[in-house]
Each structure stands twice: as C-alpha cells, then as structure tokens.
Write a structure and sequence with these properties.
Blueprint lengths: L9 H20 L4 H4 L4 E8 L11 H7 L3 E7 L4 E7 L13 H17 L4 E7 L3 E8 L2 H13 L12 H10 L5 E6 L8 H10 L1 E8 L11 E5 L6 E5 L3 H25 L2 E6 L4 H17 L2
Helix pairs in contact: 1-4, 1-5, 1-9, 4-5, 6-7, 7-8
C-alpha cells in the first residue's frame, strides 16, 4: 500500500506488521507455525524401508537400486534454522494498483516471514535479483537483521525498462549457493522467459521450496474503461487498445488463464507448494489459507 515516506521506514513497517499481521497470525495459528514451515532445517539421521505415505522425494535411489527395495532418508529437525529468500525485484514487480504494488506486497510478506523466523532464533538470508543476481544478504538472526533486510529492500532502485526477465539465474543462485538443506522462499510474479523450471525441480530436491507468487487482478482481467495505452512493465513497449471491445477483453482473460494454468503445472511438476498473494488481498488471510492447505495435504499424504 502506498503510504507517506515517514511511514515507509523499516521501523514503521515492522511495527505495523507486528501489530496488524503477526499478532493476528499468532492468534489464528496459536503460535504453531509447523504447518507453514514444515520440512525445513533438517539433518540426515538414518535410512529405513519405504512405507506407503512416505514422501517420495526422500527416497534414496542409490540405496534403493543396490538393495532392490525402496529406502527413504530420515531427517531430524535442527533447533535453529537458516531460511533463504530468493527475491525477484525486476521491473514487472513495480506493477500494481494505486493502492498497492507487487513490490510493496513483497516487502510486507518477506518482512513478516523473516520476523516469524528470527524471533525464535532462526536465521534468514536473501538473494536480490533485478535484471541479474545483484546481491546476497548473509543469513543472520534478530530484529535488527530484519530491519536491515527491509531497509535494503526499500533502497533497491526501481529498474528502467529492460529485456524480459529470466528467473533461471536467481533459482540457480539458490541451487549452487545454498549448501545445507533448508527452507527456501522464491518470491516473484514469475513473469519470466522460459527455462527456469528445471532449476526449480533441482532446487526442490535439495531443499524445502515454497513459491510465493504475487499478482495483480488487472493482469488477469481488464475493466471496460474505453481506449487505453497498455505498457509492458518489462520492455516499455506500448499498445493501444479499446477495452470497450468485449471480444478483446475476453481474449485477454483467456490468455491470463492459460498463463496461470501453465505456471501452476510448472509448480506441480517441481513438487513445490505455492502461496498465491494478490495485491488486493489480506496478507494474514493468505498465509492462514496456505498453512491450512499444507496441513491438510500432510494429513492425506
């Protein structure tokens, strides 16, 4: 949400989130965030024979081939966890309504999750991507570190128009740069050139990956607002359209649904859970919905 500059300081943002988001989440989830952060921060413990219901991602294929019987790896949770945020800050993230841009939603979401993790002694780090992988913030814990992360996000400049975003370098940065098995959040609108899906599958084989997909309703449905000039957020290319044309609006919506279906299929093939967050949606409601879906999925696994 666009607010006066004074209200966009790291301290003000974190205070607002503590009161308006985190307190509500504590009440709704009773402080139990295992439904949200399940599966992260684990060390290898032992091998045992596969049993129905086990997560197939934990099958040790080398041992399985050698013994001709499926075996799965067992892990024990660490008391302290390191989580990583892979952050897409490309030009399309500056799109949104007058009330809220995707970049502002990204800052609120990342700050909330980082605060939830670090207040229990866990560490968080981040990798920033603009037109390329630009910087890495080392993983640390504590409130001051969350404030630093928010500050760096606020200072990250909005980029001029650029060639189409390619998320593959960002995902590969996580794949090659994060050594120990951990929790990885990829925060993006996933408007990208193709070719990042294979890196996503490999990343999810090594870590617990959660995709946080940000979107704006105007990317899916055009209002009947008469003649407009649409501008590509990535390249700056402009196109004159008449939104009074029902046929054009219908084609726009159908194309949006096709893109959405293809994206969801990519996440499904990679085995990645997705938190979908709109610029006009309540952050608490979205996080609780996501946590509930993960809990139900585990019960029926």
């Amino acid at each position: 949400m666009n607010t006066p500059t004074a209200a966009r300081t790291p301290e003000r943002i974190l205070q607002r989130l503590d009161w308006q988001v985190i307190r509500r989440l504590d009440g709704l989830l009773q402080g139990d965030y295992r439904t949200l952060f399940y599966g992260y921060g684990v060390d290898f413990a032992d091998l045992r024979e596969y049993q129905p219901g086990d997560d197939v991602r934990y099958i040790d294929w080398n041992v399985t081939a050698r013994l001709a019987t499926p075996y799965v790896r067992q892990y024990v949770e660490d008391r302290e966890v390191t989580a990583w945020f892979l952050l897409d800050l490309s030009p399309s993230m500056d799109f949104g309504s007058v009330q809220s841009q995707k970049r502002a939603v990204l800052i609120d979401c990342v700050a909330t999750l980082a605060r939830l993790l670090t207040r229990h002694g866990n560490r968080v780090g981040a990798i920033f991507y603009g037109s390329r992988v630009e910087r890495t913030i080392p993983a640390r814990s504590g409130r001051l570190h969350v404030l630093r992360l928010i500050n760096d996000l606020l200072k990250q400049p909005q980029l001029p128009r650029a060639p189409f975003t390619d998320l593959r370098p960002l995902v590969e940065a996580g794949l090659h740069g994060i050594r120990r098995r951990t929790l990885v959040f990829i925060v993006s609108d996933f408007i990208s050139a193709p070719g990042w899906d294979q890196a996503l599958r490999l990343l999810n084989q090594r870590h617990e990956v959660i995709a946080i997909r940000l979107w704006d309703p105007r990317e899916m449905e055009l209002p009947d607002a008469g003649p407009l000039i649409l501008e590509d957020a990535e390249t700056g290319e402009q196109l004159y359209v008449d939104t009074r044309d029902k046929t054009f609006r219908k084609r726009f919506e159908e194309e949006g649904r096709r893109r959405e279906a293809a994206l969801q299929e990519t996440f499904k093939r990679a085995g990645v859970d997705v938190l979908t967050l709109s610029t006009d949606e309540d952050l608490v409601r979205a996080i609780v919905r996501f946590a509930t879906l993960r809990q139900q999925r585990r019960k029926h696994a």
